[in-house]
Amino acid sequence: MSDDIKHEPSTLTFNPLDPEEFRRQGYKVIDFLTEYYKSIEKYPVRSQVEPGYLQKRLPKLAPDDPESIETILKDIHNHIIPGISHWQSPNHYAYYPCSTSIAGVLGETLAAGISVVGFNWISSPAATELESIVMDWLANMLNLPKSFTFSEGQGGGGVMMGTTCEALIAIITTARDRVLNQIGCDNINKLVIYGSDQTHSSCFKSAKIAGISPNNFRSVKTTRAHAFALQPEALRAAIHSDVKKGLIPLFLCANVGTTSTSAVDPIAKLGEVAKEYNMWVHVDAAYAGNICICPEFRHVINGIESMDSFSFNAHKWFLAALDCCCVWVKDSSVLTRTLSMNPEYLKNKATESQQVVDYKDWQIALSRRFRSLKMWLVVRSYGINYLRSFLRGHVDMAAYFEEMVVMDRRFEIVVPRNFALVCFRLFPVAVISRHQKFLEEESLNELNAELLESINSAGRIYMTHTLVEGIFVLRFAVGSTLTQPHHVSYAWREIQDHTDRILARKIQSWGC
Description:
The chain is α/β, with parallel strands linked by helices. It has helices spanning 19-39, 69-80, 102-114, 125-141, 164-183, 201-209, 232-244, 267-275, 314-317, 332-339, 349-353, 371-407, 429-432, 441-458, 485-509; strands spanning 157-161, 191-196, 217-220, 248-255, 280-284, 309-313, 325-329, 411-418, 421-426, 464-468, 471-477. Strand 4 (248-255), helix 8 and strand 5 (280-284) form a beta-alpha-beta unit. The longest helix is centred in the C-terminal third of the chain and has 37 residues, at 371-407. The termini are far apart.
């Protein structure tokens, strides 16, 4: 040893990746999750804790010395589980599903265990190549145009991101630069973003991050008469008004399965309008895109061949577990021109050969997770036929729920059902005829809000709401992996029981 070296490195006495300890603790965690899923129905679906509850339960300072996995799992059971709203419960009908599966969980485990950072091809070739392959698999399952795939060799392809918001930031930024490169950066305040008033807020949030003025966001009005789908005539009128003011139409976010009511925009007709103004058109099918692998639902994305980009969230309804947003673009070169950075420390022969995909140039962040491993497991473990049956089963259960709602004259369907979301409300006709105050929409909204809170506070099922055309709507979204028809029947009985009690109290308070 050189005399210049003064200190010999110390040997670690604790190995955070000891193989045998990993095996022991891994079994403990799997056993914990197994028991959690076996007993998940006993927990309140929506967490019943008060804000700040965990501060009162956990120590103020982190431990100085290691604690056992047994102690930690005990604390998870005692302190964390009570603060969880159980998205995987079969009685979870809120928002949209965030489905998982054995393959989804184990795929996440494998990806975390291998723990690669696949920002470019050379950093881990399999991570990049598997992603390209799986994205083409999914494109074929969806019957997307070949122009959206790598196999066509014309510049299209797919990438896995975390969420739709991430995807929209990347895509809107790309659309922005495509136009500004022609008209000059000084004109950014002239660029306008379009969507319907049902478009997810992430679109306008992403546009704001991309530097588009909030004054240039257009939420074009939709109506109940058209099931809250964006109408081409309304879009054209909004665009025409902006063009007359000297503004530049930049980007349209067309929706297939909106968050509020699962509305489906006529994307082919909207695309025709947008293309007259050379706009970028993105199809956000975060929820409903999943079911487009079923031929009978594929028509909702007819016209996709003329769009610029398309995305759906496999973590919503495809058993993939959060997070996995699948995004396709027709021309990846415009994406990479905007998002590519090549510092010296990332340069390598593979990239310079231009024969590989460097996914860092397809997204905002540099680092990225090995999501394709999870999706590969899901598709291989279940196969296309089972995945179709899984999705169809939820649609059938939603249709069954809808039938029960229709049979009870105290309720009405607010919007025709799309896919596995039922939008309904309490509309007690018999009560209305005797008490004029219920004719006011505001009173009906208060009644439905009271019903929803009563149901959710009980904890046996969990639903959420939306507001469309001033109507407070109850949303019943079927999609949990564990949900079976008897759970849907139970949920309906629960809704009816709470309705009976609330209406009885109302009638009593009026002295009837």
